[in-house]
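Lecture notes, unit on binding sites. The following record was shown on slide 14. It pairs a sequence with adenosine-5'-triphosphate.
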Amino acid sequence: MTSPAEKDSAKPSHFLRQIIERDLEQGTYSQRRWAGHPGDADTQQKGPLDPARIRTRFPPEPNGYLHVGHAKSICLNFGLARDYGGICHLRFDDTNPEKEEVEYVESIKDAVRWLGFDWDAKGTSHLYQASDYFDFMYRAAEYLIGAGLAYVDEQTPELMRANRGDFSRPGVDSPFRKRSVDENLQRFREMRDGQLPDGAAVLRAKIDMASPNINMRDPALYRIKHAEHHNTGDKWCIYPMYTFAHPIEDALENITHSFCTLEFEDQRPFYDWLLDRLAEGGLINKPHPRQYEFARLNLTYVVTSKRKLKQLVDEGHVGGWDDPRMPTIVGLRRRGYTPESLQLFAERIGVSKADSWIDYSVLEGALRDDLDPKAARAMAVLDPVKLVIENWGEVMGADDKLDPCSAPVHPHDASRGRRQFMFGRELWIERTDYEETPPKGFFRLFPGNKVRLKYGHVVECVGADRDANGTITQVRAKLVPDTKSGTPGADAVKVKGNITWVGVADGLKAEVRLYDRLFAVPQPGTGEKDFLEEINPDSLKVVTAYVEPSLREAKGDEKFQFERHGYFVADRVEHRPGERPVFNRVTGLKDSWGK
Ligand code: ATP
Ligand code: MG
């Protein structure tokens, strides 16, 4: 039998995989027990051996829409759990009473599911909310007070800040640091009971005010906040700090590997300090979870700060959270990104310990690689001008005669059948496919030149008509008889140009939204300018196009490769099949940014 680890050895290894593999090999967590739900030491101890070989978690704060950076974290946490016979929890980190909104909870669940992951494992849901652990957190705080490891500090916030010291200066002990256990306990209960106003006191760990790591200088554990919480209502007026809450959440959920971004590296000593103390006190089991940090995703040409994304939406620079230019998961989805392409992207970028920027083209490359074998092909003319075949009636017997043509749905998969469309006297072609005086190397339409209309006939260009402004109103050509694609002798006439087209008789008028990168510079907001000044003014161009009739049935969210143009998706919000076709450009056929 191959272990899940061996089975996935095809995937690129990285330091987090190595850590997990080492722990599995050494059986670090093999004796843990699991009661079937989160709980303290006694609760878990009554359960059987934990069936999950590892437990990871994705812990979003429900205070905004998820973005591509979160997608990396989701793929990492859920992906590693899947690969190593583990379970990944979706945990809403809702310990901050004021910021969270229930609206975001649903969008986060949708995003995780859409990306192809599930917090249900063998019929058990592993969807948790940190606020369900408030009772335990309070108990842990009283335990620390009782053990002489925490105290209620009533210095003013200004003094507290000043007395913390800085990198070059050790901190100064608070005058409240020497309070007795009983006094601390009494005062903490008064905090809990609402007898003190916001900001009047905090509970702090008693560690070391001279520690070189400022996070170890008696960090705050609880603060007073007279605020209603969406889950616990007005039960609490004190709330745990993130640094206190997070390790406890991990421990109660039997998490083995707690992955977070690098900015939490300095918090790790406190993470371990806290869990070691709680384990000593018998509140949680050993071995406790461990925190490991990886570099967050920075993607060029977008921003991934929730605050900046919100500003883009609130100030109307984009159409909403799901604007196809947004790096939010809802935006990427509407743009035409697939879950598989984002998983592939996450795999390709891997994880590292060094901060870096990933080029946007890596994301687009993953999408192309995913869509190329899947997307049905279609012809579309995005900047249409009419091509009139003057001798059509003469050759075909009547001007209104239509000649059925076809092309494979997918060039590498004949089983997907063929698309049908009509050749006729009038066709739509790209305006740029005609040149009066062709530059060197131009093989398409110019007077006297022959080109093939792909899957159709060869024509010889005659010329073009212009209006008073000199704008071309129509291009004229003559059919070269006996050149229809797929008929015997069709190749006798050699041509260098092969152009796409859509029949005027059966082409479908469509709105096509040509999206480009949201920002004009690779690292928006990192230089002197405000990020808003670096928005790409050409990130959206809307055109009226003609598309082949096979797209009449296109459903919202269906992806296509428009030959020569790139990948397009029927807009999942506004596209109405047949009535009002709307297609979004996902990405071009190859990386052409800046070229
Ligand atoms: P906030 O500023 O609101 O805390 P956040 O981006 O940290 O924003 P969270 O909801 O706390 O948002 O993040 C959930 C998880 O996603 C965290 O574990 C975090 O480390 C991870 N995450 C967030 N941004 C990125 C990123 N750019 N790359 C990789 N992981 C990320
Ligand atoms: Mg966060």
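Take-home: The CA atoms of residues 37 and 249 lie 12 Å apart.
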